[in-house]
Amino acid sequence: MRVFLCAFEGFLIAIPMDAIASVALYADEYAEYPEEDRKSAISLPRLFNLPEEIIKHIIILKKQDDKTNYAKENNIMLLTTEIECEIDIPDERIFPLPKILGPTNFSALFSGIQFNSDKLSDTADGPLLLLNCKELNRFAQKEEVL
Predict the structure, then answer these.
(1) Rounded to an integer, what distance in angstroms lies between the CA atom of residue 127 and that of residue 9?
(2) pLDDT tens per residue across span 1-16
(3) Whether the Cβ atoms of residue 20 and residue 69 lie closer than 8 Å to each other
(4) What gap in Å lies between CA 35 and CA 37, rounded to an integer?
(5) What CA–CA distance (Å, rounded) separates 118 from 101?
(6) What is the model's pLDDT at position 17?
(7) In Å, how far from its chain's centre is CA 71?
(8) Domain segments of the chain: what residues?
(9) Long-range contacts of 32-35 (CB under 8 A, 24+ apart)
(10) How far is it, in rounded angstroms, from Cα 139 to Cα 127?
(11) What's the rounded Cα separation, in Å, for the pair 133 and 110?
(12) Rounded mean pLDDT of 101-125?
């Protein structure tokens, strides 16, 4: 599976490339969106309760129900730290989340974990969490801007 890696203090987030419509720099692109289109923005640092993390990129996810129309105003925009790299992670290296996390709503945002990810990034160590973009889309539909 091809993913973009974003490093946070103590863990990495892997965002599947097949769920991404486009990527932009935060300072240049986000200010250009009309206010009504910003309602679908989710700040990953804020979601993970890491307000000190600096947002550097916007990742625009594809619409969940439409694989060809990438209208920005209808898509989820992830505000995230710097995209570290683009890598392939074999499916067999991603494991299901431990069942103990099952009852938490937060764990639904991830579809898998790789425990030994310290060699994937120069700036973060710890586990790699694979973002569940379909569930994130559902979460964003229910919640206000994060």
Answers:
(1) 11
(2) 999 999 888 889 999 9
(3) no
(4) 5
(5) 22
(6) 93
(7) 19
(8) 2-142
(9) 33/72, 33/73, 33/77, 34/73
(10) 23
(11) 8
(12) 68
* DSSP annotation of 104: -
Q: What CA–CA distance (Å, rounded) separates 114 from 135?
A: 19
Residue 107 structure tokens: 């764990």
Of 28 and 135, the one with more pLDDT: 135
Residues with Cβ within 8 Å of 26's Cβ and at least 6 positions away in sequence, in order, are: 55, 56, 57, 58, 79
Cα 110 to Cα 106: distance, rounded to the nearest angstrom: 8
Token pair for 24: 């932009």
- Starting at the earlier edge strand, list the strands of the sheet with 128-131: 83-88, 2-8, 11-16, 128-131, 110-114
Mean per-residue pLDDT, 125-135: 85
User: Which pair of tokens denotes residue 111?
Assistant: 């579809």
Chain centroid offset of residue 46 CA:
12
